[in-house]
Every structure is written in structure tokens, then in C-alpha cells.
Prior knowledge:
The protein has nine helices and six strands. The chain is mainly α. The protein folds into three domains: about 1-65 and about 100-130 and about 180-200, no CATH class; about 65-95, no CATH class; about 135-175, no CATH class. The strands form three sheets. A two-stranded antiparallel sheet has the order 1-2. A two-stranded antiparallel ribbon has the order 3-6. The chain is globular.
Amino acid sequence: MVVSAHPLASEAGVAMLRKGGNAVDAAVATTFAISVVEPFSPGIGGGGFLLLHQSKTGEMKALDFRERAPLKATKNMYLDPQGKVRPNLSVNGYLAAATPGTVAGLYEVHRRYGKLPWQEVVQPAITLAKDRFILSQQQTWRSIKVYEDRKQVILNNPAARAIFTRNGEFFDPGERLVQRDLGGPLAEIAQNPESFYTGNIARAIAQSADAKGVSPPTWQKTVV
Length: 224
């Protein structure tokens, strides 16, 4: 059995079981897939927790891969020179980002307990991102249309606006959503998850921040 907040993500997990994978393979595939089909869920830019029960030994394992503050974060990073809070800096933009733990956490649990190849469990998410999927008719609290309060922030970001909106409006249920700009990094993560923290993906994030005149705190790989 695979249970998640979206049927396409659950199907990704079930596909791993049908291929002879185990529960960890299914969990990893489902998590990567849901970061595509529910764009506002914590995906590769987020973090989480994992509990693993080993039926043969009765052992219970726990893994904490929640986001962490970057090493160069300071208590005054959201204040202006006069010590006043700069509005929205902690919720929008580069300085709002913590060090993501999802990729490191999923790779660690898969490295220890997974059965199928890493590339194989990431592939369903890559396919969903690059080949499009149909937005669900059933609205949930993670559905794109629910996030009207974030629309202006998305419209102010040219890349996000091009992906999630058309003529200034979110795509409707029943329409297809393609996220090729997400599919590319996922494909790179499938080849080398370390790239997300120290390779091409990390460099692209840093270069994008530099181009905007922002100096974000350095990302440091989450310890798992």
C-alpha cells in the first residue's frame, strides 16, 4: 500500500513496488513525485522527517532532515541599518530560503535501506515534470488555485510566472502543467544528489542570487 496526498505521487510509489522495490523505494519515489504534482508542497527545497519500522527485527528508525538555517545566517539578517524589520524578507526571496534537507535525507535513507537503483526511484518525478500532468479536479489545500494570496509574489517572479500562470491567472483544474525547469535538476539529482548542494544546481542558485544583487547565506549540506 502507498498513501500520499496525490494519486499520481502514490502511483509512483506503487510502480516501485511492482518493480520489486521495497517500502523505502516507494517512499522516496512518492516524495519526489509529490514535489512535482503539488508544487506548493515542500519539495526538493524543503525538508521532513521519516520513521522506518523494520518488521524482521522490530526496530524503529527515525531520520530528521528538516531544513536548517544556513551557516552564515545571522539574527539581524532581516533588519535594516536602523534595526527595523525589512517586511517580507523572511518569507520571499533568497534570504527566506533555509538549507533544504529533502534531497540529502531521501538519498541517505535510500542508501541504507533502498533496493532499486537511485536513478530508478527518481525517474517518475522527472517524467511528471518534463512530460506534464493534468491538474486535479479535486481542490486540496495544496492545490495551485488555493494559493491566491501568493499570486502576486509569483507574478513578480518572471520564471515562476511563466510556469504557473497564463495571462496573470493560475492554470485551472483539468489543464496540463509542465515544469521542465524542475525536471532538469531532478535528472541531475538522479545522477548525483550531491550536485544539489555543491555542484551545478548549487552554483546556478548562487549565480541567480548574484544576478539579483543578493548575497544569500551560504548553503551548507544538512547533516543526516
